[in-house]
Amino acid sequence: MHDTPGGWRRTAAGAGLLRADGSVASTIFAEMTALAMRTGAINLGQGFPDEDGPAEVLEAAREAISAGVNQYPPGLGILDLREAICEHQRRFYGLDVDPGTQTVVTTGATEALAAALLGLVDGPDDEVVVFEPYYDSYAACVALSGATLRTVPLRFPDFQPDLDELAAAVSDRTRVILLNNPHNPTGAVFERAVLDEIIRLAHAHNAIILSDEVYEHLTFGVPHTPVAALPGGWERTLTISSGGKTFRTTGWKIGWITGPAELVTAALTVKQFLTYVSGAPFQPAIAAGLRLPDAFFTGIADEMRRKKDMLGAGLRAAGLAVSEPRGSYFTVADAASLGAADADEFCRGPLAEAGVVAIPITAFVSPARRDEYRTLVRFAACKRVEVLDEAVARLATLAG
Ligand code: PMP
Ligand code: GLN
Description:
By secondary structure, the protein is an alpha/beta fold. It contains 13 helices and 16 strands.
């Protein structure tokens, strides 16, 4: 066994991931959701909506099941969904993507990330550069791939990377620059200069950009710009998204990868042995979702914006310093404003006692950097207005 920079240990057989103390790890999301269920606290921890998505999308899945769409679909995904993904990339970003060779459907963005990383990197001499804090599966998948993780810090409250630190992290050993934009857990949407620099570095060092864009339709007052749509971006980028956030179907696990055929094939080669194929009846339903009119997409962004504003105001009223997210479900608050020295203790102690569950940002950072993020907490705003109202009332009790 050996320790990895993400704090994971990999068994010799590569068969399991263990925490550094030897225990089998459950994810922080599962743990905090269990805490909320046990205590009756409002769950602003795990990012999942508490309402159904568009009726026509749900109905399309029911119809597909009734029509017998219940056996293995093609490995690439059904053609209708691949076409809908390509229509979506053209409609929103002006990208021309070929549904035959440049698109593959996956079991959520999670599998897309795993398949792409396992397909593109090969052992400890390959480095993966990632912004930190990072979505938890990134470090776990890099550990599975055996590659070396290098991180670039994003700092409270604006969470934009320092371009010199970014350039210093990328070298000829870098195989993948892994980007998540809009960003979980910080809510950052990266400036154009950051995306341009990533593209420049990828070209200079012969690296591939892996861009996780699952929150592409949840930005607030700023457009979403896929790195693949910028000059020089397409030929070096695999773009990942999924239907979970956009259509409030996080349990359906339909994701996709688009990019140059050779890179998509590298991911597909692994995907076929991870899950073989992905949820047949949900594929036509997500295709229907991707073809919804523009008003649907602007509507979900407007709604999320109102919700994050409610949450932000409530956190401020409770006496917390907060970030101003420009996208995603998430807002980051600094519990140090309330005198807390450790966000993990704050989340399990005073916050849970006030009746709200959130996630300490330390769950998204490598052990080496834990101290820098020790007092930060991530709150999710993807809940019904009345639930957020109640959460804000409970947060107010912290202020006293
Ligand atoms: N990437 C990011 C940044 C996420 O927040 C999530 C979870 N919502 C995923 C990937 C996983 O997406 P999926 O549920 O489609 O696997
Ligand atoms: N993406 C969601 C979040 O960040 C949760 C996904 C999960 O539970 N793995 O909260």
